[in-house]
Every structure is written in C-alpha cells, then in structure tokens.
Amino acid sequence: MADNSKALENGFNKAKQIIREQVEKGLMVQANKLVEKAYKLYHSPKMAFTGQTWTGTAVGVYSNGALIYVITTKQFADMPAPVRKKLTSGEYAFLKPDYMGRHRGYKGVIETDKENSEQDAIGFLQGHRVNGKYGITVVSGSEYASYIEDVLKGDVITGTYHYAHGLRAVDLVKAS
Questions:
Q1: What count of other Cβ atoms lies within 10 Å of the Cβ of residue 167?
Q2: What pTM, to 2 d.p., does this model score?
C-alpha cells in the first residue's frame, strides 16, 4: 500500500493557505468599512482647517504579526492633500483658502510634531505589533484628534471604535 502522507500534508497546507487568504480578505473588507465610518463620522466644531486630522486616520490589517494592508481616510475618500503641515502650539496661520475653502486664520493650541498626519498614522501602523495571529488597528496620526474629542466634543475615531464592536466574525468568512 502506498504512503499518502505527503499528499495529505500538501492538502492540509493548501487548506490552511486558502483559509488564511479568506480571513485576510475579510479583514481588508472590514478595514475598508472602518475607514469609511471614520470618514463619515468625523466631526469637529471648527471643521477642517489644514485637513490634517480629517485625512490622517488609518486602518491597518495584520496577519501573522505582519502589516499586510493599510487604508487611510484620505485614500478612501480620494481627498485632497492637507493644505499645510500640522499647526503647533502658538503658531498662527492664515490660509487662503483653508481646507474647507474658506479664508481664515487659526492659532495652534497644542504641541504637534509639525508633520503629516497620514504619514504619522501609517508609520505608527508599521511599527505596531498586535497580539494574536490576526488584527485590525485604527489610529489617527493627528495630535489634534484628542483635542477635538476631549475639548471640542467632536468625533475623530471614537465613533469608529464603537462601530467596530458590531463587526462580526461571520462577515470575515463570507468576504471574497
């Protein structure tokens, strides 16, 4: 009688590969839903001045400890680039037009790294490690996210966090 152990091992490996690919596709679908929710729920009483906070939310998908997919609110909504780097505490800028198309000035009220929120969010995801085999992480690369939520009572990613609790594992399996 022939030994079929090699064929059986190959079959199990192929099945594991198919399952992993389906789970990864499902996680990417969920990441797209999360970034869409972050984009739609974004609300700041001052709205976008430079565009950094609104365009700087990113969602990353991890498989076996590696970042395999990133999408940002800027990419999702095909938004224009921010009109300037982040404003920092005490710095004043008059933008003509600002990110919302208005002419207005603003004085920075918190410390920032004066860089680009989208790139900061992506950089965080690249260095982040998740617990477990698979994971999804949502992050804002703007220091103003906390200020908008805590001081101005707006929404940058808190609504997305609450929405994520409604995601179901069964949706991951059905995604194709």
A1: 16
A2: 0.87
